[in-house]
Amino acid sequence: MSNYCITTDSNSDLPVSLAEKYHTVIIPQYYSFGDTVYGDELNMEPAEFYSRMKQGELPNSQANNPAVIEEKFRSVLEKGCDIIHIAFSSSLSGSYNNVCMVANELKEEFPQSRITVIDSLNVSLAETLLVIHGNDCIAAGKSYEETVASLEEYKTHLNVQFTVDDLFHLQRGGRVSKATAAIGTALNLKPFLFVNAQGALTSAGTVRGRKKSLSTLVSRMKETMEENPDLSIPVGIVHGNCLSEAEAVAEMVKKETGFTNIIINDISPSIGTHAGPGALGILYYGKKRTI
């Protein structure tokens, strides 16, 4: 059985503790304020990032860097380790294509090695759930091919429900119109979005008020759970600098669904650029995505 490992990108929001546990190689995604680019050696704490956004500064996200991808992958291949890479949704970024391009180039240089790039068709901690599952497969002694097949099936069951606190950032990213953002803000409407089967963001309506939006997230989760869920599988909750609300949602999830293994983490700045302060999402293994 060949030696292989799971790699991912920083949009996975993989907690440091898990990255260290699995010795995960992570490809950085970039973001910028003005001419200053962050994401690799230069980083910003999420609290500062969202604080600057609240103060009116507008960051931009950028794709990954092929040279850095090559460096990261080469460091793995030179150790004689094959790669299964969990990538950010191809429907939301060109980063997936960059990874595929570099992988194909390196396969020519390392013809005995294997690199499989899995399009997660998802975001944030849903990628982390794939990283965890992939490493569980490794621990169970599954072959490279078995793990790839398992991950491809697993990803179709990963659901994301999320809401944002400020429609402006969705409008800025082209997700809603300027008129919709203005009317929604005036009426205190909070939108719901989910990641569809093609890995793209899809609108799922609105409710009025923040408190109602958070409880509705949990209701939407319950509607898309499997009938007899495996309660040992982790549930992810991500937030844009609103930890207390994320913790409150975690308690609602525990009470109403029975899941207790909950990972809470910040939304990485490269995603937060589009979601904004106050964004909050639940990511979990549920019914297979069909729409």
Give me a quick take on this structure.
The chain has 11 helices and 13 strands.
Structure description:
- The chain has 291 residues and is of the alpha/beta class.
- The protein contains eleven helices and 13 strands.
- It has helices spanning 16-22, 46-54, 66-77, 95-109, 125-139, 144-154, 167-172, 178-186, 210-223, 243-257, 269-275; strands spanning 4-9, 26-27, 30-33, 36-38, 60-62, 82-87, 115-119, 158-163, 189-195, 201-208, 235-239, 262-266, 280-285.
- The strands form three sheets. A six-stranded mixed beta sheet has the order 10-9-8-13-11-12, sandwiched between helices.
- α10 links the parallel β11 and β12.
- α3 packs across α4 (95-109) and α5 (125-139) packs antiparallel against α6 (144-154).
- The chain is globular.
- The model has no long low-confidence stretch (mean pLDDT 93).
Can you give the helix content as a percent range?
A: 40-55%
Give the N-to-C terminal Cα separation.
Answer: 37 Å
Q: For the record, what CATH class of the largest domain applies?
A: Alpha Beta
How much strand? 15-25%
Q: How many discrete domains? A: 2
H and E string: EHEEEHEHEHEHHEHHEEHEHEHE
In the sheet with the most strands, the strands line up as 10-9-8-13-11-12
Radius of gyration: 19 Å
Query: Count the strands?
Result: 13
Can you tell me the overall shape? globular
Instruction: Indicate the low-confidence ranges by residue numbers.
Output: none
Give me the number of helical elements: 11
Give the secondary structure arrangement, pairings included.
Blueprint: E1 4-9, H1 16-22, E2 26-27, E3 30-33, E4 36-38, H2 46-54, E5 60-62, H3 66-77, E6 82-87, H4 95-109, E7 115-119, H5 125-139, H6 144-154, E8 158-163, H7 167-172, H8 178-186, E9 189-195, E10 201-208, H9 210-223, E11 235-239, H10 243-257, E12 262-266, H11 269-275, E13 280-285
Helix pairs in contact: 3-4, 5-6, 9-10
